[in-house]
Amino acid sequence: MEQIHWVRHCWQQLVATESGRGQYTAPAALPTKTSPVLHNTQGLTGKRRTVIARHGRHQHEYHSISKGCQGNGIRTTKYSLLSFIPMNLFQQFHRAANLYFLFLVMLNWFPVVEAFGKEITMIPLVVVLIVIAIKDALEDYRRYRFDQKVNNNIATVYSGKQQTYVDQRWQDVHVGDFVRLSCNEIIPADMLLLYSSDPHGVCYIETANLDGETNLKQRQVVRDLPQQGSELTPENFHSRIECESPNNDLSRFRGYMEYPSKARVGLHNDNLLLRSCTIRNTETVIGIVVYAGHETKAMKNNSGPRYKRSKLERRLNVDVLWSVVLLVIMCLTAAIGHGLWLRNLKEASFLIPDTTSPALSGFYLFWTMIIVLQVLIPISLYVSIEIVKLCQIFFIQNDVDFYNEYMDSRIQCRALNITEDLGQIQYVFSDKTGTLTENKMVFRRCTIAGVEYPHEENARRLEVYEEDEAMGCSHTLKSRASAKSLSCKSLSCNRSSVSLHTLTGHSEGEEPPSPTLPQQSAFSSPLEKDIVPDPFLVQKLNSLSSPLFLLKDASMELTYIVDFFMALAICNTVVVSSPNQPRHVVQVPEVSCTPLKSLEDIKMLFQRFGLPRFSTLSPPHTTESPRSFTRRLFSRGKAASFTPSPSPTPTKRGTGPDGEPNLEASILSIKPVSNPGEDGDRGYEEEGEHGSWKGEENKMLHLTLGACSGLGNSNGAQGPPGEPGADELIYEAESPDEAALVHAARAYRCTLQGRSLESLLVELPGMGSLAVRLLHILPFDSTRKRMSVVVRHPLTNQVVVYTKGADSVIMDLAESPKGAEQSDGRQGHIREQTQKHLDNYAREGLRTLCVAKKVLEEEEYEIWLKRHAFAETSIENREELLLESAQRLETNLTLLGATGIVDRLQEEVPETIEALQRAGVKVWVLTGDKQETAINIACACKLLRSTDQLLTANCGSKEACKALLLELRAEVERGEAAEGTSGFTLVVDGRTLDFALQEDLKGDFLELSRRCRAVVCCRSTPLQKSHVVKLVRDQLRVMTLAIGDGANDVSMIQVADVGIGISGQEGMQAVMSSDFAISRFKHLRKLLLVHGHWCYTRLANMILYFFYKNVMYVNLLFWYQFFCGFSGSVMTNSWVLIFFNLLFTSAPPLLYGILDKDVSADTLIKLPELYKSGQNSKAYLPSTFWLTMLDALYQSLVCFFIPYFANAGSDADMLTFGSPINASALLTILLHQVIESCTLTWLHVLVLVGSALFYFSFTLVFSVVCVTCSPPTNPLGVDKLQMSQPLFYGVCALTTVLALLPRFLFHALRNSISPSDTLKAALMDQLNPENYCRRMQRWNQTQAQSKARGLVINVEDLDFKIPDFILPKEL
Length: 1371
Fold this sequence. Notes:
There is one protein chain. The protein is of the alpha+beta class. 43% of the residues lie in helices and 14% in strands. It has 44 helices and 34 strands. The termini are far apart. Residues 1-43, 473-519, 548-553, 591-726, 817-821 and 1348-1371 have low confidence and may be disordered.
């Protein structure tokens, strides 16, 4: 059957190639099954790249083939010296506001509609363009300096002319060049690895510059190179490389290399060295450049800052449109009035005869008024918003509370224009592992062969550690190496790397840490390493080398235990390093397959396993070899080995068909005495052939400290002479789970001591160091949810598959072959007991992982190997074929046991979630963990309260899901109707979530979930997470925030309105996709409740203030049109008109938006309820906007008509009339901000007084020195005369008071009769500490009393509403 599948697959590939669907032709001869290199020779589909050596016999083809490839120089700048002005202007005029004002400038050049001097009209636009251009130029210059620094780095590149390697700048490297790198050097371009000084062709790289991960990753030289094993000679390299076009997928690379013999070998990601990574643990590597410069994967992923549109900005755009409507209405009014005025005017002596009709004159005046009233559209507002947001980001990034000393990291603001959205969040979607928890996986307990080992001493160790950490004792974790890319200078490598910060935003002024400092590997803190073994398990393992083993019936269980810890030690990709050479791999020394000294040692070892034990059932001198018995002992996990073989000849009990003693049969037939009252969880007892090991603990002697000291102290394990001791090893794992399991195995002296490409060195208790031949690694992927290693067992020489993975997957795969009744009974019991233990672990909040094995027959392995080799060497569909191959192998597994790993909550997580809930934010947890684990974590972090009613949704079909959702919804409605119900928490599993997200059920699911106080989605996939966030965001129209730390959270982070990445233990994928990056979940509390509140209120108030001052001043010009025949004239000179908004009133709003503080940070933290004002957009409602417009209208009337009546009947000219209007309007606008501001400091006073003095100084100087500055009017001496008269100051004072009186009275009455929560909190800030504490207690008591009536969410309508809290009147 396997051959039929193989022939069918080859036929399909052949047909696909001949039909022209591939890009390349197949070789002339059909490959045979024994030539895996030639198995798959069809080409890459889609676009591809051809790479040949730049210097070689194909040099004449190089330029034609590589002409489309980019050089290695990078340029992140937008402009050059020549292109700066045109490019910058082109980009700036992409903004609608700039185009609008450019239109006005051009319009003013037409004489029929000209309102001011042509040059004067250009001033506002030119000033704005210059300010933005200077900012862009400074940013671009900073990028230019960084580019030069990177491009001028030196690499060793092969020179065809000199026939040797020479130093070249990075920017001079090209596709097809051979580059030689040494240890600790940074890779200058994406290169295909062709040579490594490692004898196995392995190279180790550190990708910290790329994704933040500091653990080592292994890369492999391209297989079957003609010069394999010797240093590559570039002039002899004649192969051709075909690979996919440049892309940004860091985890995938596809292509093939065609040798001169026309043989092809597939290329994959393990052969590619990525730009910005650092060479580690390898003296020399040589590669050929396939992608350079901006075509490298690192640069393809360097997207820079993220830009989004905030909710406030969308609201602002609507109000700008209303301003346009208001402008059109005012201009139409003036145009119609002008036409009517001309029509009714008969032969006026002051009119110049003109043939223009009144209607046409009105049309011309419409455009003139557009120019005159242009200030109504706030062009400077957009510039001011950018400046304010940059300052807000500066304050956020420099908040010391966000600094993490342990990781030497601070908050990163990657999205520059959504800071105000932080103050309007209504839903938070959080990952669990690494987000709510530490992601420091610590081995807690385990179950092996159905026997649970609680590790109570280890639990007490963790409790003591937590207590000491909380008290700040000295032995808590030391500061880990910086999050920046640190290079460790080894004894044998002279160069040290310099971090290029290719994807990070470190400033140039930061001093890089010393490269000679030792770097602690990830996941290797004392908390994770110092595991206290379970004494019962220690006792059983000690029996391998103890005479006490002769008294025990534990051979079968011991087989499971040894296999279990063997799997923990080798089923991983952990790199073993040495501390004296921190980033150098400990290689596997030459060790014979049999680690024991002589054949007599082997006999003695396995005589302890069996012979005295069965002396009463078999002859005293057995003829079976120890190796034969070992093969049987270590193959217990194979189900078929327990199946009785039918024999035509009856055999004596305890002997085999050949007359030799059948030790296996003897083992299976013995039933030791056990206590009938023993707890079943400690073992199991079964009659007959299934054997028993129940109650073995009672048969063993209690261990003293001295008896188990050699095993219990994980730091004291020593290997054979000449090998590194266990306490001298450093494990560098790709995930915290892997590290936890390897440290757990090490605690039991099952120590991984070294790793090479083909073998592992493992120390087992009582057996010494064993060289385990590594055949294959089937890495973990999210589809299979498991990983496996295929090894040649060092004792039995059998091919064994060790698998570890999610319990939901492994338990399904742990099935015995049909017909293996004996094993099925034993395995059935083990599965049953293990499942019980897994459920208990989940209820305790532990992360569970199952371990299993499978023994392959040689023939079975050879069949699988052929298909797997075909998949490995495949060029097309390699990932799919490898997945299929792994799934084919990982079946009918023998369950060994399971582990429980504790992942502690981060500090202050419960307090943070409680504060967010008090702030009216709904928190959802989306996790891939088991339901029990998720519920336990929800309880621990106070997401699920003891008074909440828990609703669980676990359905097996769509119909059942619909019925359950309706039932749960009815239950929630009944609970809401009843008094005293505190709330509901919904828990949904992944399968039910699939049904609930379908089109016809998502409405019911959403209606149910929005009525619940919290929702926990367990067993959810990354795609489900993003769908949930999108559903809530779009259907409920609420502001959403997603927070996570891993690559599986990226889609959720990108879908949410605000995405936050945690720079934790799982690299930088989430950070690079986020809008903001923090190091701890607790920082979310201050980021939202304090900075979010401040950013929103400041920006909202500043925008309203801008609209107010523009409308107020424009209305002054509009009222004047009623007294000048709607002619478009103004009562002030054009310079003052242009500078009024551009200079005189521009600085105070900026200060208002940057520094205004309504409530202190401490009060906002202590009273999260204050955050609700931002959720409901109270600072910037449509009603608030129109009330502000009405207030501006009133103030403009006062500022215009009081000077008008004061000058009534006088001979004051136009400029004399306009002078007090301008002065009083300026004072009113500045003092209006004083009334609205919550903070007044010396800086505010300085800016406000400075703005007023600047206006009066400018107008005074202007009126003294300017004679013809503003034709046709002449301002000479006007303001000088006005400022010398008392009437001017009296009019200004009276006008200002009357204009501001209504707003002042409104604030006084509102704050006295119905003060807002924010005002009450601000008053509490002014109290002395004793009164402050007393009133804060009253506040909290009032909140507790009013929670039942105040926290109920209105569910009658779909919009998310949060009612106000009722505060005590004495506050």
